[in-house]
Known about the structure:
The chain is an alpha/beta fold and 305 residues long. The chain has helices spanning 15-28, 59-66, 70-83, 85-92, 110-113, 117-129, 147-164, 188-193, 200-205, 208-211, 214-227, 240-254, 256-259, 261-272, 285-288, and strands at residues 2-8, 33-37, 51-52, 100-104, 131-140, 168-173, 232-234. The chain has a seven-stranded parallel sheet, with helices on both faces.
Amino acid sequence: xxxGQVVIGxxxxxKTTYCNGMSxxxxxxxxxxxxxxxxxxxxxxxxxxxxxxxxxxxxxxVMMEHGLGxxxxxxxxxxxxxxNIDWLEAKLKPLIKDHYILFDFPGQVELFFLHSSAxxxxxxxxxxxxxxxxxxxxxxxxxxxxxxxxxxxxxxxxSTMLHMELPHINVLSKIDLIESYGKLAxxxxxxxxxxxxxxxxxxxxxxxxxxxxxxxxxxxxxxVEDYSLVNFATLDIQDKESVGNLVKLIDKxxxxxxAGIEASAVEFSKIAVGPVDWDYYRVAAVQEKYMKDxxxxxxxxxxxx
Length: 305
């Protein structure tokens, strides 16, 4: 039985940075990790990937050959991957014996709540390779500082959950920067628990741009509350405790913790007893050709989203 994560989220939410940091963390607690890059636009990877979709198809080639823009090109790439799923299966089979899998997907949100190709790829892999996957949906935490954007993030999260049909965890990423774009109107628990959204109405009414959509916003909030599915974990990828807490949630959702309870306890004891040599800004050898000075590495500019 093979376990792993499907890492998705809007552009700029930090998916590639997450895969880099998460793979390092999991390796330090004793898991063999394989990162699978399925983003054909991500040509500057900060990690060494075990499988790279660019070996099959490149977004730049698709755009040039078919005259498509970035969004249309990504849809074409996912359709192409679905039609050539045997290629991906063959690449994964040597890894699934003893690796934990991280799938790094593109940041085009339509792929995960509207189009079916990405979902079909995942479902075929789950069925044929007996994978136990959790969808980790990253949302930039700074959206909480804008009520309108936060409501949009709620609707996107709900739509993605219903479409993907996987164990699902929504994550407010970059939680250490949550107030960098403005002070929050409520305590952090309000945004993570997603309860009593009617309190957002006052904040929305203060902005003339949002006030005109008051009725629509109320209906969206009612839908989110009626389903009662959306809540958020938080993540600071530079903080080992924050990453460890998220890993425990993921392990519970996909069954990893139940498949090897004793092993899981041993893993986390490794980080509980003291500091670990986890360099979040470590750049893998594959990245060195893209960057001359890794001290200037900025996760927002080089996230690949």
